[in-house]
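Open question from group meeting: does this chain pack into something compact, or does most of it stay loose? Before anyone orders reagents, we agreed to write out a predicted structure and look at it together. Recording both the input and the output here so the notebook holds the full record.
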Amino acid sequence: MTSMQRGREGIERWMREAIQSGSYRSFDDLHVDEIDPVWNDPGTWLQAGIQSLETAALVRDRESWPMTVAVGFSLEPTAEPQGHRLDSWPSVLARVDNSPPSLYLFDRGIEPWTKSSEFSDVSGTVAPPTNFATRVMLREWFEEEDDEYRSSLWLAS
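Structure tokens returned:
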């Protein structure tokens, strides 16, 4: 079995289990480094996140599941809000932290960004290298406990 087949099967298995159990409603996620050992290397995470999202979107479409699939990238914390400084895919790459990206499933139409003012749509300025329609959302919030701004970038299909 090739690495690509293992990855596709792992993603599909996780999606089926999360949908059947309803665990996706409590933000059950799948880290890319759990999909394929090749993706343990942080240098592979960005491409792995995009490839995982594309695979999940293909499985969702094939199964006709009414879900939004998304991959979340955790970004380095900062002392000041940085959202306005994310103006390209390279500016995002420079801020990815040491946590591997994760796949998520959401009920279509009630994704977290539809319910929270912490999210802003940056699709017009941050264009990831994908071959499929992707919405790009930035979540930024102040973490009082650590006295810093936290952020994450979400690609959704």
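Observations to bring back to the group:
Residues 3-156 form one domain.
The radius of gyration is 15 Å.
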